[in-house]
Amino acid sequence: MKRLIVAIGCLMLAGCGGRVAQPLQVTRDIDPSLTCDHLRAEYDNNLRRRTELTGESSDKVRDNLGMLLASPLLLDLSDSQKIEAKSIVERNLHLEDLARQKNCPALTATPNPA
């Protein structure tokens, strides 16, 4: 009985290692009604989120090294950050196309105010 409980506990912990990717949709039904300001705001938001994902990805390496010592079951071996970052790039390319079609100013990364 003890072995069964330990095995179930290990299986439950094995699912705790990573998180499920939540990629952005490249196109949305509302896209045609977005204004230039909306396009710019979403584009900038996506860039900020991509920066966060980059930090998360580098933290994951450090955390995995620590978890390797504690319990290999807790390692995050998922590519969720990469999947989400790729979807952000694809969404931003689509937003750039929409901005061109609407004759908006070019969407490029704006420098962060110091």
Query: What does the main sheet amount to?
Result: none
In angstroms, what is the radius of gyration? 20 Å
How far apart are the termini?
A: 61 Å
Order of helices and strands: HHH
Features:
single chain; 114 residues; mainly alpha; 3 helices; elongated
Write up what this structure looks like.
This protein is mainly α. Helices cover 61% and strands 0% of the residues. Helix 2 packs antiparallel against helix 3. The longest helix has 35 residues, at 36-70. The protein is elongated and about 70 Å long. The model has no long low-confidence stretch (mean pLDDT 76).
Sum this structure up briefly:
This protein is mostly helical and about 110 residues long. The protein contains 3 helices and no strands.
List the topology elements.
Elements: H1 2-14, H2 36-70, H3 80-101
Helix pairs in contact: 2-3
